[in-house]
Amino acid sequence: MFYHNSSIIHPTVFILLGIPGLEAHYIWIGFPFCFMYIIAVMGNCTLLFFIKIEPTLHQPMYFFLCMLSFVDLTLSTTTMPKMLAILWFNYGEIYFEACITQMFFIHTTAALESTILLVMSFDRYVAICHPLRYTAILTNPVICKIGLVALIRCLISTTPLNYLLLRLSFCKSNIIAHSYCEHMSVAKLACADITLNNLYGMVVALLVVLFDVILILLSYLLILRAVFRLSSRDARVKAFSTCGSHICAILAFYVPVILSTVLYRFGKNIPTPIHILLVNVYLMAPPMVNPIVYGVQMKQIRERVTKQFQRLV
Asked: Could you list the residue range(s) of the whole structural domain that residue 31 is in?
């Protein structure tokens, strides 16, 4: 069950319990999560496909949307297949290396989603506050550099989480009371001091999520100031409408994040299954909601999808 690497002991496998306390309902719980995953995969793949084949969609806003869709696909695929295997087939075993890999992708893609939402708020700020300079500011090379910087930022902030776990010895239980390998859930199984793990996890949350939220709020304050300076009511409505999808994406991501964080830190009397269900919703809600809100609210994507279906019929 455990193997030694010099003085460090690591388990060969971990056992993921899924949602402890709701074992009798696992089969039924799996159906809504499977439905969410199917919608997420189909919706994001559809967005990526139509943005790729439609030249009129080759604009900065849609390039950032492609980044968001790719991250959503990665985030949902990293977690949901294993969770469904637990819920439907009672297969909770996961090798130590696979657990560390899953943890890396979950934390990195979640941080990347937050960063891309920040980048998209900057895109909306430029489009509304500096419309005449929009294409001059957000050129293709600039977009590529922004995407690369976003990825590097997230890798730098989340990669140390893996090394903080690898330095720990696990000589007790290998059972994780969760549906996926989350940093602190794994660290709590170690027979060593995990204060550094806890502190670094909190620092990453503050530096990434809180920092991004502050900058997003600042960008929308500047957008609101620019919009209210417009003399025409129709112009104000049109400006606000271009931000509708992005605001929905922000709410779908940050509301569950903040709620789960608050409940984890302060909701000691809340049952564990509620915590785990909420965290899983936090991971699956954005990948499912984002393609829906963008596909419905963005006229060009909606028209392109409608035309394709009419041709098939």
From this structure: 2-312
